[in-house]
Amino acid sequence: MKKAPRLSEAEWQVMKVIWRRTSCSAQEVIEALASNRDWSPATVKTLLNRLHRKGALDFEKTGKAYIYSPAFAEAEFTTQEAESFLHRVFDGALSPMITHFVRSHRLSRQELDELERILREERNDK
């Protein structure tokens, strides 16, 4: 099975639009990013082309439009990125990473309850 390619921050933004819509045209991506990014249509098209060359996107030509779809599920990129971060920043040690985020971010009661539930489930599975 092919490994998902590494993405830049800008490429993540483009991919998020496409993952949410399953497939869409370049114009739809441009419109979706127009409200929160100051990117020209040419910039978005460059990013789409780069993502296709990397193997992150597939496309189908429909008339004059190119319809882009993800070549990988979002979860594949998320897992890969999380693993890369864990190894780069915390030398692969999960406990120090979790400790860092729990202590440096104010978690809501609901988030703490969810974390405790997950940890209990993991403990019971072992």
Provide an overview of this structure.
64% of the residues lie in helices and 11% in strands. The chain is elongated, with a radius of gyration of 19 Å. α2 crosses α3. With 126 residues, it is mainly alpha-helical. Strands 1-3-2 form a 3-stranded antiparallel beta sheet. It has helices spanning 9-21, 26-34, 41-54, 74-90, 94-104, 109-125; strands spanning 24-25, 57-62, 65-70. The protein starts with 8 loop residues before the first helix and ends with a helix. The chain is built from 6 helices and 3 strands, in the order αβααββααα. A hairpin with a 2-residue loop joins β2 (57-62) and β3 (65-70).
Distance between the termini: 29 Å
The proportion of strand residues reads 5-15%
Strand order of the largest sheet: 1-3-2
Cα radius of gyration in angstroms: 19 Å
Low-confidence stretches: none
- Count of beta strands: 3
Number of helices: 6
What fraction, in percent, of the residue positions are helical?
A: 55-70%
Largest sheet: 3 strands, antiparallel
SSE order, one letter for each helix or strand: HEHHEEHHH
Q: Give average pLDDT, whole number.
A: 92
Morphology call: elongated
Protein structure class:
mainly alpha
Compact description:
The protein is mostly helical and 126 residues long. Helix content is 64%, strand content 11%.
Key structural traits:
three-stranded antiparallel beta sheet, 6 helices, mainly alpha, 126 residues, single chain
How is this fold's topology laid out?
Layout: H1 9-21, E1 24-25, H2 26-34, H3 41-54, E2 57-62, E3 65-70, H4 74-90, H5 94-104, H6 109-125
Antiparallel strand pairs: 1-3, 2-3
Helix pairs in contact: 1-3, 2-3
